[in-house]
Amino acid sequence: MSPAHQAGSEGGHPTVDQAADPLSDCTAEIVRLTGLRVQSGNRARLESHVHARLQRLGLHRPEELLQRLRPGSDSAAEERRLLAELLTTGETFFMRDRGQMQLLQGHLLPRLIEERRGERRLAIWSSACSTGEETYSLAILLHALLPDRHDWDLRLIGSDVNASALERARAGVYGEWSLRGSDAAFRQRHFTRHGWQWRLREPIRRMARFTRQDLLQADLVAADPNLSGLDLILCRNFLIYLAPPAVAAVVERLTACLRDGGLLLFGHAELGAHRPAGLRAEMYPQSVVYRKAPPLPSHPASLAPSPSSGRSSGPRSGRSPGQSSSRHPMHAPTGTRDQSRSRPASAAPSRLPPSGPLQPVSGRTRTAQPREPLQSAWVDANAGRHARALQTCRRLVEREPTQAEAHLLIGLVALELGRNHEARAALRKAIYLEPDSIAAHVHLEALQRQSAEPLAARRTRARLRQLLSHLPPDSPVPLLGDTRVLDLQARLSQFDAEPCPTT
Ligand SMILES: C[S@@+](CC[C@H](N)C(=O)[O-])C[C@H]1O[C@@H](n2cnc3c(N)ncnc32)[C@H](O)[C@@H]1O
């Protein structure tokens, strides 16, 4: 029997008028007030929660609970926290998303370290970190990359809304599930074994500190002044739980916590069609990364500089052009190009994959000597020179319309520019030409999900699952950097479990 029925049948307890289904209205209002999406699969849990809260608080109608959630109410933060714990999961593990971790290790963190070497100050925030695996993964990378870290003011903050998750994070003791996919050498190096559990070695554990933060609250910096002027923020696998207006609000809040030039990293395709203001997208094979752009007087809000503005303003980096990133090259997985059964092209030559060692995205890109137009388009896209990237790709497809990868890149750039129609058309073309292109399906699925087309998104996921079933679970997904097949499969299941947003 559902708690709704129980509540209605017991004298003195809150009663819900089932006929009028006040919970339906209540659900919409909860979404509006919190920003959290209520998936159809979560409705029963929400119903139980509302009834349990009413009982506990001695209230009678769901509206009274809503009252407690309204801005200005003293109880709003507490009710929001309880709902967040109910409607999101704490699923996480060490080195989650190998591609992003490799990008952090091989490129982003070394670049930030170089940029900050003068001041010897580095501030990194793993927001919505759950039980801390993500935060400690960063600690492990920094431990190796910054041997003189004791001479640095190194701030590595993990935060979550869930206090008990944070307690577990502070303890730094983990089970097998948190270490899935990690090999024996990794475990030996960073943990000591205690029965079935793994305890983080102290030097790593001490690098991070944890604090409770609600990303849905209005002013994060006011809540914790340590969250300002940050160099890097990770916000992965949290935005998927939010309704679009809340995604925009959280991204804006996080952006406010970054210094100019600071970086923001989300889970793949979590922003979907949302185009964040004040951030420039840098497209790496492993992931899109967002960089906070200082305001440009001539192109204040432009994400699409003209080719000349791209050259003149250039991507911003504290590094001088002579400082090459070659010390930390990105190592692309081999065989990342989608080569499987393309439609017959007009003898299309095998192009360089975008996941080859791309030239870096900062000012030094200008000195790069791309060898092929398609690679040059990827480099331009990386550096935020979207117009030029598009121009190159369009020329390519004019000459050779069956260039699936060029259509894919047009799709990605169009997505970044918020041109969803164009993105959709280009991704569809890429799929038509390469029906087995996993990368194109992944981005189309994200677009469909964000455009509230749950059935289409579900169909695309089914197709993706089919494509992935032919690949070894531990292999990298073609054209998605080092994202492994099993990571992508897990992600698809996550979306499947939450199929149809009610709003
Ligand atoms: C799936 S976990 C993500 C963990 C980690 N970032 C990762 O990608 O592996 C989502 C986390 O978001 C947290 N969360 C939910 N609502 C939140 C909020 N309003 N503010 C901060 N964290 C929140 C949950 O408690 C949960 O730990």
Model description:
The chain is α/β, with parallel strands linked by helices. Among the domains are: 85 residues, no CATH class; 195 residues, 3-Layer(aba) Sandwich (Rossmann fold). Helices cover 45% and strands 11% of the residues. It has 20 helices and 10 strands. 46% of the residues are buried. The N terminus and C terminus are likely disordered. Bound molecules: S-adenosylmethionine. S-adenosylmethionine binds next to loops. The site of S-adenosylmethionine has 22 residues, from loops. Keywords: Methyltransferase, S-adenosyl-L-methionine, TPR repeat, Transferase. One of its GO terms (molecular function) is S-adenosylmethionine-dependent methyltransferase activity.
